[in-house]
Structure formats: C-alpha cells, structure tokens
C-alpha cells in the first residue's frame, strides 16, 4: 500500500531510498500505518507534516523506518518494524494534535502507541487491543 499524502523518501532513510526500488520500500511498512498517516494529514491539512526531510537537505533521516545503521535503532522499536513514525507539524501545536487523537481514538483506530512529553508526534500501530500512552 502506498500513501496518498507522503512520498516514500519521507518515510525511509536516505540510504534505502537511494539503493532500493520504491515498491520494495512501501512493502516494508504496515498498511495500517500508511492508512493512519494519510488520515492524520487529512484531519490536519494546513502546512506540512515532516517525518524525514533529508530529501530537501533537512536533518531528519530516522523518523520513519529505522535500520541498524541508525543511532536510534532498537530491534524492538516499532520504527524498526515499519509500524511507527515521528511527525512534526508546521501549522499545528503537537500537544493539541496528540490530545485530539487520544480523545478521538475512533477516528484513528490503528494507533496503538503514542509517546508523551516529546516535541513531535510519535504514533505506532503495534499489536495490542488498547491505546498505550508512554514516555521514553
């Protein structure tokens, strides 16, 4: 499944984007995550949502899929499983977005993990029945 709102280079690290075919890269992601990030962009359409921005010479390379080459890599991280992203909103307050998602879980049924007390929105589609709110 491909995203309607995001390009693959926004979700994978530069090295993978440069060396692997786009179709292969899309298959590395949980389709529930792709569906969810599109739903978030539709709900919060103003401005940009930044995940990775190296394509435009930005400094974010590991906010989507993480490989062993990332200093943030962990075998148990949802990022390493293609089930998590960290999002930065240019036109919305991240705490308000986070709270909206928590208060309206029915609009985002695949979100099963949300990190609290960070300046970005971490969401993931881990395997569980309820919503886990956690601090790193």
Structural summary, described in words:
- The protein is an alpha+beta fold and 136 residues long.
- The protein has one domain (8-134): Muramoyl-pentapeptide Carboxypeptidase, domain 2 (2-Layer Sandwich).
- Helix content is 25%, strand content 13%.
- The protein contains four helices and five strands; from the N terminus they run αααββαβββ.
- The protein has helices at residues 14-19, 22-26, 31-43, 94-103, and strands spanning 49-50, 84-89, 113-115, 121-124, 132-134.
- A five-stranded mixed sheet has the order 1-2-4-3-5, with helices on one face.
- Strand 3 (113-115) and strand 4 (121-124) form a beta hairpin.
- The longest helix has 13 residues, at 31-43.
- The model has no long low-confidence stretch (mean pLDDT 97).
- DSSP summary, beta strand count: 5
CATH class: Alpha Beta
Radius of gyration: 14 Å
Tally the helices: what do you get?
A: 4
Secondary-structure element order, N to C:
HHHEEHEEE
Care to give the gist of this entry?
The chain is α+β, with helices and mostly antiparallel strands and 136 residues long. 25% of the residues lie in helices and 13% in strands. A hairpin with a 5-residue loop joins β3 and β4.
């Amino acid at each position: 499944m491909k995203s309607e709102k995001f390009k693959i280079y926004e979700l994978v690290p530069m090295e993978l984007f440069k060396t692997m075919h786009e179709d292969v890269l899309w298959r590395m992601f949980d389709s529930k995550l792709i569906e969810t990030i599109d739903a978030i962009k539709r709900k919060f359409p103003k401005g940009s949502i930044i995940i990775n921005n190296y394509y435009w010479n930005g400094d974010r390379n590991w906010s989507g899929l993480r490989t062993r080459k990332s200093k943030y890599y962990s075998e148990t991280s949802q990022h390493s499983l293609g089930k998590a992203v960290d999002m930065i909103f240019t036109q919305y307050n991240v705490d308000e977005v986070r709270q909206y998602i928590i208060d309206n879980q029915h609009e985002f049924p695949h979100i099963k993990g949300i990190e609290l007390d960070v300046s970005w929105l971490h969401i993931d589609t881990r395997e569980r029945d309820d919503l886990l709110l956690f601090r790193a």
